[in-house]
Amino acid sequence: MPHEIPPARPEPDDRYAIVVAQWNQSVTSVLLEGAIETLRAAGVPDVHIDVAWVPGSWEIPLVAQRFAEGGLHAAVICLGVVVRGETSHDQHINRGVSLAISQISLQFDVPVLFGILTCESMEQAVDRAGGAHGNKGSECAEAALHMVGLLKNLPGA
To answer: What pLDDT digit, counting tens, does each position of 81-114 carry?
Structure first.
């Protein structure tokens, strides 16, 4: 039977960064609440959760990169909402931000979680921020906790 590597439990000194977009704040604030509640439930104290608000989702990667390169945070959680409009603007935002987030994670060897909702409508966004489809901010925080723990237990870590 193969050896499965379980994630380690969160450690008291682990710090988490959350970068959240102000654009569509009625939704992003709910995502943020979900992420913070999940981190707290895992034993992460408020003083180890750093939150930075940026104007919109496009600005998330730069601040996420600063957090990742700083070496103080075990993971960076990125939260935003991009809703399709009448033009292709949303596609350019989504593509650029998603590529940047993945590159930051690999470059700095830090989990950088993609919690940016890419929706067809505000109704879909609300459904994913505490509505019918759960809270994607909370799910992002759960993924961050899992990845931090897994990386600690990987051989050679």
So the answer is: 987 756 666 566 768 789 999 999 999 999 999 9
- Are residues 31 and 82 in contact, defined by beta-carbon separation less than 8 angstroms? no
Tokens 């957090």 found at: 67
- Of 48, 73, 89, 133, the active-site residue reads 89
Q: Is the pLDDT of residue 153 over 80?
A: yes
**Is there a binding annotation on residue 87?**
yes
Mark whether 89 is an active-site residue: yes
Q: By C-alpha distance, which of 11, 54, 86, 123 is closest to 77?
A: 54
Tell me the pTM. 0.91
Q: Is 139 annotated as a binding residue?
A: no
- Could you please report the per-residue DSSP string of 7-39? PPPPPTT--EEEEEESTTHHHHHHHHHHHHHHH
Indicate whether 6 belongs to any domain. Answer: no
Q: Is residue 5 part of a domain?
A: no
Q: In terms of residue numbers, what domain contains 138?
A: 16-46+62-152
